[in-house]
Design goal:
The chain is mainly α. Helix content is about 55%, strand content about 0%.
């Protein structure tokens, strides 16, 4: 989470205004979950520890890490 927030904060003002923090978090969290799932798949392992791996293609989990 801290890295995702820092990435958003480092964006130029115009990009931050065109992509609000909530939208940035939603996209970044889903992208991260997709990457983790793909890495597990490539290694031939079950992504048991990846929260939301079963719903990431449908928009991700209902309660995101950024909400806690």
């Amino acid at each position: 989470m801290p890295k995702i927030l820092l990435n958003w904060a480092a964006l130029p003002d115009a990009k931050r205004h065109s992509r609000p923090l909530a939208e940035h978090l939603r996209v970044a969290e889903n992208d991260f979950a997709k990457m983790l799932k793909a890495n597990y798949d490539a290694a031939g392992c079950e992504p048991e520890g990846v929260i939301g791996h079963t719903v990431v293609e449908q928009g991700g989990v209902a309660r995101r890490p950024s909400w806690t």
